[in-house]
Amino acid sequence: MSRLNRRGRALDGILLVNKPLGVSSHGVVKQCKHIYGAAKAGHTGSLDPEASGMLPICFGESTKFGAHNLLDANKQYIAEATLGARSSTGDLEGELLDQRAIPENLDTLLPVVLSQFRGEIEQVPPMHSAVKVDGKRLYKLARAGQVVEREKRTVHIDKLELVDSTATTLKLRVSCSKGTYIRTLIEDLGEALGCGAHTTLLHREWVEPFDGLPMHDPEKIESMALLTPGNNKPEIDALLLPVDIALRHLPEWRLKDDDQLATFCYGNPVSAEGLENIETLRVYCPRGMFLGLAYCKKELVKPLRLIARKTDL
C-alpha cells in the first residue's frame, strides 16, 4: 500500500535486497528509498561493505514492526576462511599477521574442531565492530590504533558445516543467533586448528523468517522502475512483502465487527471472551487487514502498537 505526501510515497512493506559487495547497508537503503520514492525506509541489521547477501529493508509502517523482530532473528551465512594467517581486521581489509603452517592432518582435525564450535559458545566482539565501549564505537577506537578490553558474549551456533575446501581455504555454512560475529568465529576456528585464519568471503543467505524467499538486486529494481515513469510503480511494489510477515510467529486475533474496530483503533481495549492472557498478539480488522500488535489480559485485548492508516478499513 502506498500514498504520496510531501516527503515521498508513504509506502509500507519489506524488501529483501541482495546487497552487493563494496557498498554499505546505509548506501543500499538510500538507493532503494530513492528508487521507490519512499518517505521512510530503514534496514534491519547491517552488513559490512565487504559482505553481501540478504538485507531486509523496511518501508513506512513496517519499520515499527519488522525492524525490532528482524534484529533479533537468526541468520545463515556462507563464509570462506583462508588458513595460515590472522588479519588485523579479521578479513581482507587488514594486514596479515602471525603466518603459520597449515596442519598436515587438517582433514582429520577439522571435523573435531568444527564440533567444538556448535551450540552455545562465547565470543569476544572484534575491535572492528559497531559495539560501544564507554560510549565509543569499537571500530572508531581501532582506526585510532587503540585496543580496549571487551566483555565476552554468549551466542548460539545452530549449524556449522563444511561446504567446500582447497589446500588453503574452507567454505563454511553457518546458521547462528543474533550478535554472532562470523569473522571472530573464523579467527577462533583458526586458532583451534593451530594455523590462524581470516575471513575472505561473507555472504548472508537468509534472515529468519525469510529462508527460501527470493532476494532482489538493487540495480535490477532500478531498471524495472525506469520502465514505469511517474509515482505509480506497480511492478516494483509487487516485490514488497507485507508488513506483518516478520510477525507470523505471534498468535493471530481478528476483531469481530466494526464497533470493535472503531474502539480498538482509538487505542481502547475490546472484549475477547474466552481468550487467555497473551503477551503479544497480531490483530486484524474484520476484513483481514493487519492493524498492529496488542496484548490480552483478563479477556481484554489492548493495543500495543498500531499501523497509522489514512484509508478506510
- Major β-sheet profile: 8 strands, mixed
Poorly predicted segments: none
The coarse silhouette is globular
Order of helices and strands: EEEHEEHEEEHEEEHEEHEHHEHEEEE
Q: Compute the CA-based radius of gyration.
A: 23 Å
**Count of distinct strands:** 19
CATH fold field value of the largest domain: Pseudouridine synthase
Gap between N and C termini: 13 Å
Report on the architecture of this protein:
Helix 1 runs parallel beside helix 6. The protein is built from 8 helices and 19 strands. The chain is 23% helix and 33% strand. It has helices at 25-36, 62-71, 106-116, 138-143, 182-193, 218-226, 234-237, 258-265; strands at residues 4-5, 8-9, 13-19, 41-43, 52-59, 75-83, 86-87, 96-97, 119-123, 132-133, 136-137, 153-165, 169-176, 197-207, 252-254, 270-271, 278-284, 290-297, 300-306. Strand 17 and strand 18 (290-297) form a beta hairpin. The model has no long low-confidence stretch (mean pLDDT 89). The protein is an alpha+beta fold and 313 residues long. It folds into 3 domains: 4-73 and 210-244, 2-Layer Sandwich (Alpha-Beta Plaits), CATH 3.30.70; 80-198, Pseudouridine synthase (2-Layer Sandwich); 250-306, Roll (Archaeosine Trna-guanine Transglycosylase, Chain: A, domain 4). The chain is globular, with a radius of gyration of 23 Å. Strands 3, 4, 5, 6, 9, 12, 13 and 14 form an 8-stranded mixed sheet that branches. Strands 15-17-18-19-16 form a 5-stranded mixed sheet. A two-stranded antiparallel ribbon has the order 1-2.
